[in-house]
# Entry
Amino acid sequence: MTVWVILGIYVAVMIVIGVMGARKVNSLTSFVVGSRSAGPWMSAFAYGTTYFSAVLFIGYAGRSGWDFGLWAVLIGLGNAVFGAWLAWKVLADRTREVTRRLKIKTMPQMFEKRFISKPMKIFAAIVIFIFMTPYSASVYSGLSYLCESVLHIDYAAAMLAIALISAVYLVLGGYLASLKADFIQGIVMIFGILAMIFFVFRAEEVGGLSQGLSNLSEIMREHELMPLAGSNVLPLVSLIILTSFGSWGLPQMIHKFYGVADRGAIKRGTVISTIFCGIISCGAYLVGALSRLFFTDIPELAGKANYDLIIPQMLIKSLPTVLLAVVLVLVLSASVSTLSGITLTSCSTLSMDLIVSVFRPNMDKKKTLTITRVLCLLFILFSFVIAYFKLPILMLMSFSWGSVAGAFLAPYLLGLYWKKMNRFGAWSGMLGGLGVSVVLALVSNFDAGKSAVFGVTAIASSFVFCFVGTLVGRAIGGKSAQTNDAFFAVSDEVQA
# Structure
């Protein structure tokens, strides 16, 4: 009963935020990027809560903790240092300035402005919508495993609840409602992860901090996890790179920089975001690392080992009912915020950069706003359908993450700073990175264990394609060598 009461309070708060946010949404711009005046706390928490979802707590933390033991915490450190601190240092201010000056609202629009290519904008919009759908589905799946284990409610019913919560506050309130919701959900996540760590260490299976770490070190030596075996180095490093640097190319993450108020907010937001990501990510992987103290074998579902059951079963054994409810809301908060970020980014891109740009260029902004809202509902529905079939979380997450980052990270990052990069180079990196990711996934039959290595390979390949393609573009000349010098113009800050 306690669990349901706490969940009920959370749902009510999200609905209120959505209804209140709806009053402030009076244009397409306000729905997609707000007023571009987000402060450091709102921006940092929005970045962090979009970064982490049930995929971290249920998927990555469980499997990585089992496979690497305490070494898995290095993934969390990488997320904080490279995925948060360095990302804000390198990307935030430049992205904020360019998108504000050129009135850019989506990543495809940035590619169009930078490389003077409408086809590139259309292609990027299609890639985002197609590959973000399985990413979104992985969010549903992760939380539903926990709901099924803790609340003993039907998997489909749990996913439907997630969908409804996301739809209500996102479709009504858009970006502004999402910012407020992310801030509240970020606070819940910090409290929840600290409570999770405290009670898991107090569990009988762990026996406290010193005893638990001592026992875990011994088990890691028995299973050749300490020192780190050579066969584990590449998968571990690949996970650190994919989950830390891969986020640099994800549209829903970059979107958080569009609305930051000023450089002062970026400086403070950098620190806040790094601390937030360090607490959440390192805490999750630490809990996952303790899994070998709870199980001698991977928990099974329908006779097959299932890594996604590790964390839920650990929590059931460790946490009192009240804290179990708080942790459930923690994972729900992380999932809903990530889902809303993916949905808003994908659907605004599809409506503005594909439907309006290609089919209805004269459509007024009110109709575009309505279409964007409808698409948000449809996107949530499509993700629900994919998740219903219970595909492994990491396979869904890593494949889509690697494909999108492989397509966009290199063209986006190099496009921001390398003035000589041209249209041919951008197309080469985009098509090459995406192609490598898809081919490797197909050849391996979507092997989740290799997905991180494949994602990193796709990203690295994209950089090579960008450099080589740029040289070829210069040799060919004409439109292939086209770039936009105005993209790098220095001007006063302009409100969109």
Observations:
- Confidence is low (pLDDT under 50) at residues 492-496.
- The chain has one domain: 2-393.
- The first strand starts at residue 300 and ends at 301.
